[in-house]
């Protein structure tokens, strides 16, 4: 689009009032019935949101004017108008039926939807991110927009359930032209904005514990993980065979210990380079010796030898003292009760049974007061169709996974990336291939981050909300899906280069476009890691941890699906947070894998000990065979499902059955209730008291004996 002008003037030359007048004209023009004119106006608004890049000379100028224009557009009510247009497009049955009948969907079928979603995404993401130079007016606008997105202002529900509806409609094949990548990105950023990220979640945890008079958290988990170092990966069977052959050839030599590399220090050299060469010379007993940030002393192909120590220094003085464990030990009240009960039975032959508490069991305390938090409002909006939302997200995740094979009956997630005319040259084919892979990676990133945010915030808001979402994930085969995702060459996935830097925004609109060649596309960018894919892997591992933690039946699913070798291969990625989640998943199933597995993987067991939190009576490293018996999956899940249904019925069902109605057992509350009595009651109440109260004998001794 050429430079935006108003009476021959550039946008940057207009005063703020003149800019507001022009935006108001665009807002009025959005209401025209002509679809082509409406699309032209929407493109003009998108150009403003993108920072009027045709008038800018640097990338900083584009970002400045984009931020300025986005706040201006929000102040003028553009987002509400776009929401109305989006609702019209969602309910456009003619466009949906036309797309269903088409043999192939392309970019041209979702032009208007993509323009609307792009503007809304830019507005949500730009306003969400706070900068140091924001004025008080912008800070107030941010809070107002955050409240607006999280409140049931759009047809009685928040904005997020509307986007979830688009996802389910797409996955049900009723709207195959919906641009899913943009919908998922907007949905993720909307929930991130309204509920808050991990740092805001940590702050909410601290505040809630203070309100409930609980002890403070022993540490900030985010800070602890950031300070952890990655460990060297364990060797595979083939690598062990090669190591034995090289030892016979006398290639083994002892070298002093040196610091290992990790993603935190990747600028020194590529930690993924020559990974196979490095492993083939590792000793089988020293493969995982980098627990404290050290590599195997035989790793001589890629690490420069440090100067030798002074000759007079005895070798015995070169001792590395172990650091403290990164996590403070934890214990649950349930574990303490189990430990005390076992000790009583073992030493004095006495058990308390189920009567371990002197507090009376109260059925209810009257009507429950529910705080209208953003998470509570979102859960209430998602509750009627939550199972459909979860299934739709997992379908998209399966379609975007690199290990998935194309099937004729699978959903087409490439509708908003495939052009109308297929490429005819090698260069065009390579560019399209990169776009398709990048498209899938972004979908995986958005879904993994979205699911993790929902699990974390619902767990903090109410545990049964978390359990409801987690159980739907389990029932929709999320566990084997994530394991299938990791059953690939994870090193190649982490280091994939599916991006073209010259086409990144705003670089592509400010600088001259270089000539793209097949060689430059094949070389990729200069980044040694794909942070997008690493982010997705960590999220998926965290989701798997959350839905299997403290659930024996789900832990047995990890064992049944043979996840241990898949997870061990993921340890090759030398990033501390990813390795931590992998080790957590290995820890919860080690006692079910047998003594031989533990004996053959002592280095992995050592890594679990040093990196994963310890708990009282934690028998993960020495579980007996009796502990490895198969658990009744159906009974455990059904019991949990019953508790969840009771919670949802009691809290959200307006037409409650008498069985789930809370009982008010507070004397003051009951006596304070207003009861409707007949008009003539005050004439006969003395007779009623005499007949129903005073004339009835009371057996006080019987009441005392009953107590």
TrEMBL record:
Biased composition (Basic and acidic residues): 266-276
InterPro entries xref list: Far11/STRP (IPR040185), Far11/STRP_C (IPR021819), Far11/STRP_N (IPR012486)
Far11/STRP N-terminal domain residues: 1-264
One GO biological process term: cytoskeleton organization
Basic residues bias locations: 248-257
Region (Disordered): 233-321
Compositionally biased tracts (Pro residues): 305-314
Domain spans labelled Far11/STRP C-terminal: 343-685
Domain of life: Eukaryota
GO cellular component: cytosol
Compositional bias ranges of the Acidic residues kind: 277-296
Pfam families for the chain: DUF3402, N1221
PANTHER family named in the record: PROTEIN REQUIRED FOR HYPHAL ANASTOMOSIS HAM-2, STRIATIN-INTERACTING PROTEIN 2
Family to which the UniProt record says this protein belongs: Belongs to the STRIP family.
Protein name: Striatin interacting protein 2
Taxonomic lineage: Eukaryota, Metazoa, Chordata, Craniata, Vertebrata
């Amino acid at each position: 689009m050429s430079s935006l002008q108003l009476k021959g003037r550039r946008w940057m030359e207009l005063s703020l009032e003149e800019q507001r007048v022009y935006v108001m004209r665009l807002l009025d023009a959005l209401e025209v019935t002509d679809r082509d004119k409406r699309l032209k106006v929407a493109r003009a608004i998108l150009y403003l949101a993108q920072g009027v890049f045709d008038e800018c000379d640097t990338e900083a100028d584009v970002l400045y004017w984009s931020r300025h224009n986005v706040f201006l557009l929000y102040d003028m009510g553009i987002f509400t108008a776009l929401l109305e247009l989006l609702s019209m497009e969602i309910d456009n049955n003619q466009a949906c039926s036309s797309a269903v009948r088409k043999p192939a969907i392309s970019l041209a079928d979702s032009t208007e939807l993509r323009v609307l979603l792009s503007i809304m995404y830019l507005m949500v993401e730009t306003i969400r991110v706070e900068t140091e130079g924001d004025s008080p007016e912008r800070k107030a606008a941010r809070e107002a927009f955050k409240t607006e997105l999280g409140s049931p202002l759009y047809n009685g529900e928040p904005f997020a359930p509307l986007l979830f509806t688009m996802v389910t409609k797409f996955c049900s094949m009723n709207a195959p032209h919906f641009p899913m990548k943009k919908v998922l990105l907007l949905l993720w950023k909307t929930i991130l904005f309204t509920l808050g990220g991990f740092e805001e979640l940590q702050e909410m945890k601290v505040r809630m514990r203070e309100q409930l008079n609980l002890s403070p958290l022993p540490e900030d988990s985010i800070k602890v993980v950031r300070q952890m170092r990655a460990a060297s990966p364990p060797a595979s069977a083939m690598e062990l065979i090669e190591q034995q052959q090289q030892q016979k050839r006398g290639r083994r030599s002892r070298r002093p210990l040196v610091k290992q590399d990790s993603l935190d220090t990747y600028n020194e050299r590529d930690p993924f380079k020559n990974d196979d060469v490095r492993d083939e010379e590792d000793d089988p007993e020293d493969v995982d010796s980098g627990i404290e940030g050290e590599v195997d002393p035989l790793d001589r192909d890629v690490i420069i030898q440090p100067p030798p120590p002074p000759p007079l220094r005895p070798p015995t003085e070169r001792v590395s003292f172990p650091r403290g464990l990164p996590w403070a030990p934890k214990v649950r009240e349930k574990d303490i009760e189990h430990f005390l009960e076992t000790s009583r039975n073992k030493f004095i032959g006495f058990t308390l049974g189920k009567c371990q508490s002197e507090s009376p069991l109260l059925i209810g305390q009257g009507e429950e007061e529910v705080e209208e938090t953003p998470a509570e409002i979102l859960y209430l909006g998602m509750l009627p169709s939550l199972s459909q939302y979860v299934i739709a997200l997992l379908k998209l995740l399966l379609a975007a996974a690199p290990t998935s094979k194309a099937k004729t009956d699978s959903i087409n997630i490439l509708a908003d990336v495939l052009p109308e005319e297929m490429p005819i040259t090698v260069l065009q084919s390579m560019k399209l291939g990169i776009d398709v892979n990048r498209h899938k990676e972004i979908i995986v990133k958005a879904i993994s981050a979205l699911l993790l945010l929902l699990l974390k915030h619902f767990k903090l808001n109410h545990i049964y909300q978390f359990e409801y979402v987690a159980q739907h994930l389990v029932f929709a085969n999320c566990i084997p899906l994530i394991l299938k995702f990791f059953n690939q060459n994870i090193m190649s996935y982490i280091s994939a280069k599916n991006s073209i830097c010259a086409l990144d925004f705003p670089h592509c609109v400010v600088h001259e476009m270089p000539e793209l060649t097949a060689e430059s596309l094949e070389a990729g960018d200069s980044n040694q890691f794909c942070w997008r894919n690493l982010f997705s892997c960590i999220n998926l591992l965290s989701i798997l941890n959350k839905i299997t933690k403290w659930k024996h039946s789900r832990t047995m699913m990890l064992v049944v699906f043979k996840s241990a070798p898949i997870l061990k291969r993921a340890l090759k990625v030398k990033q501390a947070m990813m390795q931590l989640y992998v080790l957590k998943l290995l820890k919860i199933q080690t006692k079910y894998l047998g003594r031989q597995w533990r004996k053959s993987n002592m280095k992995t067991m050592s890594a679990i000990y040093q990196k994963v939190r310890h708990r009282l009576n934690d028998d993960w490293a020495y579980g007996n065979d009796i502990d490895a018996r198969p658990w009744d999956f159906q009974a455990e899940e059904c019991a949990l499902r019953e508790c969840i249904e009771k919670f949802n019925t009691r809290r959200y069902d307006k037409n409650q059955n008498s069985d789930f109605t809370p009982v008010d057992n507070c004397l003051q509350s009951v006596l304070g209730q207003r009861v409707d009595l007949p008009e003539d009651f005050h004439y006969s109440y003395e007779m009623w008291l005499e007949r129903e109260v005073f004339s009835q004998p009371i057996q006080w001794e019987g009441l005392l004996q009953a107590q």
